[in-house]
Every structure is written in structure tokens, then in C-alpha cells.
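User: For documentation purposes, I need each entry recorded in a consistent format: the amino acid sequence on its own, followed directly by the corresponding C-alpha cells. There are two entries in this batch. Please keep commentary to a minimum and don't merge the entries.

Assistant: Recorded as requested. Entry 1:
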Amino acid sequence: MSNILDYLDWRGDICIADAPFNEVDNLLLSELSYVALDRIVPGLEEDASITVKEAEEVFFSRHNREEIYEDHSLMAKAPLVLEKMAKVERFQDMRLSCYVNQIDEREEKQFSALVAECQDTTCFVAFRGTDDTLVGWKEDFNMSYISAVPSQLEAVSYLERVAEKVTGRLRLGGHSKGGNLAVYAAVKCKKEVQDRIIGIYNNDGPGFSKEMLTSREYNRVRERIWTIVPQTSIVGMLLEHEEEYLVTKSSQSGIMQHDPLSWEVLGAKFVYLEEVKKNSRILDRTLKNWINKMTREQREEFVMTLFHVFDEMGAKNLSELSEDKLGNLGALIKTIKHMTERDQEMLMKVIRGLIGAYKDVVKEEYLPERLKGNKK
């Protein structure tokens, strides 16, 4: 089935001024934000920009395809998307600017974004999702007990500064955590900036707390939010979604459906299904029930302990954790053995709670329909 690269073959010769911006364009620009464009795309402090074509030429003068194919992290193929976008009329002359890329282990912040000027006089603000660093993943976990993580606050500041530099209407988008940042920035920014936003795209990104979703600020932009998840969504079903979400078909299975290159495209739209698969619903309800049964303090303690284990193992990114599975399993066991008795008990208690939540959800999910109405 066709994906976003095939879409570029089909629609690449038609500029956005002639064929309006669509949901697939959003995913391509969101994917572009994963490319390491440091010292290529001008930064937020600079009054300059560079075209997609120019950015591609500089990037591949510094990097070769062997590097890309040797990298097995989930978003490692983003440069290949840049390469193809640079060859088609629809994207090659878009101007890129305001690039930022911040990784701060002390603040536990991973934030990156850029701006693409479209031919319809709008700008697309693309927020990068979680990268391969454990700092980025820890920040995601922190969302379970912190009302606003550093990258969310940074996203608001970034959007407001961008709005001062560019004119016209704005679209915001991102994949994974980037989608969450796009929505958060749109909700929390100044009203004069909010009024310029015509679309917000959350591509398989986590949701928010119930307090956020019932706020007046959120309801002001709710109708402008597009949430898109694959049929077996894991990341995108985390936390709460008040808005309706669209379910796209993926050519992959399990967690690999999070990869934007696996989302199936037909024409200028994704191939949609009626609902997410049962195993995705089960996982979603399991995680929600598990998290809701823990206090804020328990969530924080679990996250701190889990990532302390990774730190003791010497890992800095997910790739390091997956490269030597047997070696890392041994290091994991050794690290847990050297934890305090209290930390060991806390970790096991939380894991037992997760298993219990899963059993409860599975039992209810497979309860005969005739009994579900009587269940209290």
C-alpha cells in the first residue's frame, strides 16, 4: 500500500497554492522535524531562512546514506523523507527557519522545532517528537505526574516568539510527543497568537490530564485539533483525548505502527478505519487504570527509580538498551540487585499493579456482551 513517500511521487509536482494543504502534508513536515538540521537551518535568533532543497544539499554533503541505514532507531529514516521532499515542487522551495534543538539532562528536557513557510502564505510550526535519547523518554514519563514538563513550556515560548517573526496564519503539528507539544502550545499561547492558528495536528501523540481537557483555553481550540493514530496505537492512546481521533491503517504491527512511514495513504488522505484494534484498547485502558490507581508521589518515585536503573546501566539512549539484549539483561539484573530493599519492593509493587490492571481489563474486554450491561 502507498505511504507518504508514494504521495510525493503522486502529488509532488503540485504546489500547495494549487492544491490545498492536507493531512498528509502535515505528517511530512512533522517527519522533517526529526532530521538533525543543526547549523543548516537558521536558528530562532537569526533573520534568515533556507529552502528545503538547499537544506537537503547541505545535509547530504555532511552525511552519507550508510550512516542512515546503520541507524535502527524509529525515526532514523527521516533524512530520506527530506531527500525526496527536496526533489518535488510541492516542498522544495518551502523556506525553513527558526530551528532549535535543545537537550538538557539537568532539566530533563528534549525540545526541537522548526518553521516551514508554505506557498499559501501560511507557516507550519513543526515540533519534533521524542528522539532516541533517554532524556527525551524520561520527559515523556514525567508527563504522568507533572502538570507541565519543560518541553511543553518551551513550546509555548517558542510559538509566541515565532509568531512575532512571521506574518499570516499558522498551522502547528508534530509526531509523537511533538503532537502533544503542538496542542499544548496552541492551548497555552496568548490569545492573539491563538487566533491566527487554523489547524493543530497531533500525529499519534499522547493526550493530557482531565484538568487540561476541561479548561476554557483548551475548548477555544478544540475544534481546530486533528488527532490521528494508527490502528494499534500505543503512544497516542496515553493519557486522555477529549477530541475525536481518526484511526489510520498501518502496514506495520505493534509499536512499529508508530512509524509515520508505515501509515497508508490514498490520494491526499490516510486510509482510515472505524476504530483502533482491541489490543490497543486493552493496552490503553490498562495503562490508564494502572496510572490512576497510583498517587502522584508513587508515579514520580517509579519513574525516578526506573530511569535510575537505566543510568546505572550506563545507557544514554534506547539504541544502547536494545543493541546487546543479553548483556543489558545481565546489567539490569545486577543493577536491581544493588538497589535498596525499599526500591526493589516499590518497583515490584508497581509491576504487580500493572499486571493486575491488565488482567482486569482483559477479563472485562472479553466478558460476554449480555453480561456487560449488568456489570457495575
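Entry 2:
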Amino acid sequence: MNNQTTIKLLAVGDVCGSLGRRKVLHTLPAFKKENQIDRVIINAENAADGNGMTKADALELFAAGADVLTGGNHTLRRREVYEFLDQSDFVLRPHNLPGEAGKGYCLFDMGFASLAVLNLAGRVFLEKSGAENPFHVADRLLEQAKQDGARFIAVDFHAEATSEKRALGLYLDGRVSAFWGTHTHVQTADEQILPGGTGYITDLGMTGPVQSVLGVKSEIIINRLKENDISKFEAADGECMLNACLFELDRATGKTVRVQRVIL
């Protein structure tokens, strides 16, 4: 644990399949130790080959150093993971998506204070997901975090539209410690501390093959867009990258004092 006046929270972008998991396993432990990272939150909605996540995938990421796993619109596609979602306190899926399995809120006891993690999904360009309004759900979850006495609050907003991510981030500014977007797999260069003290980045990016289209073999996506070929997606291979963002939070106020993009 970092003994300074801050805590360091690392948020890792969408892990893509077995290659992404391997990158986390080979990269995260040393980075976590060298930088005295206190807590790690990883988006694992595509951690399985194909999409979704299995229990085995989650356990592998926990073993690599994750403290909390968040999800997205693919998390509930594998019914075999439903029981695990219900059983695990620290494996989340977007709270505002329909479905009985799992939840999008957890409270992590850090000893001197608690960290609440919220996982929400966007609705713009994702209308078929049936997601409840994330602004309303965020308000309810923040009330829960307040009742639970959380000093630090982190939000993973799994959404397509930059505008929706930005709007929710600004709406929550000053009420949460850190806010980041996931889902689009491309890291944005807009990390910042918002006026109210919330650390922000529109999208973390992804953890997966560098030479790919969002983790998928490039030729498959090119043919789909150029020739309307609907061949099944296949994960790309080759060199991988880990995209993340490091938030340094003041222990007394819970607000971000430093934010830094990470590419490993």
C-alpha cells in the first residue's frame, strides 16, 4: 500500500481474449509493484475468446493483480457466467442493463476508507441493449455509496458515444473520484481533472493486439465494411498493448490530484 497522502488507482481498458489476458499477466504485476499501485480495476467484458467472460477468465485476471472486474454489453451473453456474477462481490456488469444476474456496484474495503465502484452502460447507438437511463441510475448508486460511507468512488461507463461519456462525466464531476469510458477500444488523449476534482478520460482503450481493428483481424473488418462480408469475427494475433489510465486520489478528499494515460 502506498503510504503517501494519496492512493493510486489503475483502470485497465477492455481486455480482448486470451492474448489480452496474457498481456495483463505478463505486464501488470511488475507495473503495479514499480508504481506502487493500490487498486486495479479491469474491464473484462471481452476477456473470453469471442466475447463475454467466463469464471476462469475472471480468476486469471484476479491472479494477475485485478481487484475489481467491470463489464459491458457483452457480459451477460454467456449464461454460464451468471451464477459467478451473483456469487462474486467484485465482478460487475453494467447496473442499468436488464437482467437478473449480477450487479453494477461494489464496495471495496481499503482499511482506512472504502472504494465504491460503479459500472454503467450507455444508450446512444446502443438502443437495443434496453439500458435504463444511466444518469438516473448513477444518482441512485451514488446515494448508495454515500450511505455506505465510501470516500472514493470510481465509475466505468461502457458507452459508444463520446458525447454521452463526456456528458455523464461532467454531470458526476465533484461527486465521484474518477470517471472513465470503455467499449470503443481506442484510447483517447483527453485525460484531465474536471473542475470539481474528478479525474476523467473518455475511453481507456483496450488490452489486445496492436495490429487489429479493435482486437479483431483487420482483414475481416475491412471485408465487412468494403464487401458486406459477414464472416465470423476472429481475434487478431501478434504484439499486444495494454491501455490504461492511472488516477492518483487524495486520501483526505477523495478527489483526483493527478491523472496519466498508460500504454504498455
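Summary note for entry 2:
The two ends are 22 Å apart (CA to CA).
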